[in-house]
Amino acid sequence: MLPSDGSPPAKPKTVFDRDAEWDALVAFACDTRPGPGLGVVSGRLRQGKTYLLRALAAALGGFYFGAQSAAQAESLRRLGDELAQYTGTSPPSRWRGWEDAVDALLALGDRRPVPIVIDEFPDLVRQSPPLPSALHGAYRRLRDAGRDNRARLLLSGSALPVMHRLFSAASPLHGLTDLELVLGPLDYRQAARLWDIGDPGLALLVHAVVGGTPAYRGYVGDRTPGGPADFDAWVCRTVLDPSTPLFLEAHHLLQEETDHWDRALCHSALAALASGCSTQGEIAERLGAPLTDAARCLALLRENGLLHGEPDAFRPNLIRLRITEPLLAFEHAAVWPYRSALEQQGAAEVWRHARPVFDSAVVAPHFAQMCRDWVMDFADPAVFGAHAATAAHGSLPDPAHRAGPVAQAEVVVRGRAGARPGALLSVGTARRDQVMDLHHLEHLRHLLDLLAARGEEVTHTRPACYSGAGFTPALREAEADGHVVLVDLDRLYRGR
Fold first, then answer.
1. Coil, strand or helix: which one is 371?
2. What's the CATH number where 223 sits?
3. d(CA 409, CA 482)
4. Nearest CA-CA partner of 49 in 10, 15, 2, 86
5. Is the pLDDT of residue 470 over 80?
6. Per residue in 280-311, pLDDT tens?
7. Is 263 a residue whose pLDDT tops 60?
8. Are 37 and 106 in the same domain?
């Protein structure tokens, strides 16, 4: 319940970051307006939903129920027992079904706003498909009766496709929600603070392995690298150590977040993506699978939030795919080919062979994505002359190299322009392990010439170089003259 002075409860010190999410949940749970409220909290596994919701219920004297995969009768019995313990009453006589249970839960809000949490709600719906209709009926009855009920029901779930269906336009719950909160991974700056890493280069490497999933620090017993020189040993004693939960986490993640008839195809698709394939056609060709099978597998991974697709910055009809969970990219690029060897050799020997692949196939594209994230989340709008609407990878054919590779730009920034691609604010190249020089700027100028020849307005487009290793004095001089934007690791982690 609220503190005696009526102020909202402070976020517990045990909850790392999540300030905005905490404020949104408290505002919903403490809303004094009459009528029952419904909130939805979704997000992939290991992101801290349960921890946050338990903390909310504890801070406000609310009720928390963690659902499990169980028959309806068992779930109702468990809920009845926990509700009786919460209210200090005798367990209810046998409920006839979810209608009775929902009425009893919502009755908790008859006297005051109170948060009522049902965690992993999809587990209940799988065994009791009529449950959403029962909830809809209970809300309709309360509102039709004009009862002064202020229950604040929060439904949480990790099964993203199921959560989307439960609250889609075709669902009985559509239109009832007052709060929709998605709990995603921590961004790379938050992750560095979580792991207590002050060195940007080390923070980048660790993020390329474990990303921003809060639970993973606990999975390695809070062991963090002692410094840049300790990174390789840290990998060997954590993610490559069979005694740690992180060792098989990539496999468990795929198994828990997908329910596919052919998980082997999903693993192979992720391996293809981790090796450099980025389009549906390239992946199907790499797998030797029909395009329809590859498309179905990729759609499943996208529905579960494991893949993200976005249009190429210069060729919008070309959709590029990337793995959103760094641990999956790390597994399928650097570890997957050596899994069997880990059973015969020590982790240090396996990592010695895998490390070059990690640097080229994992860290390099991860750094480029981090640069795009910096543009969207941290860069001052003045850097590019306007607010960025998108930051994406761009590629286009170079007439000078008809049989060769297309011209690439890892960080293409566009402004806002409604449904159409906006003004081209910046074209940038990202190199994690190269000291960048004037020839990188010349590459960008050549790319701008190609774009101008295709009719793109590039008069105010700003070239940008992103480097994890630094810049030559000549390039720094070009920056001072206003010819290029330079972004190094320190700026990525601390600057705007």
1. helix
2. 1.10.10.10
3. 20
4. 15
5. yes
6. 999 999 999 899 989 999 999 999 899 999 99
7. yes
8. yes
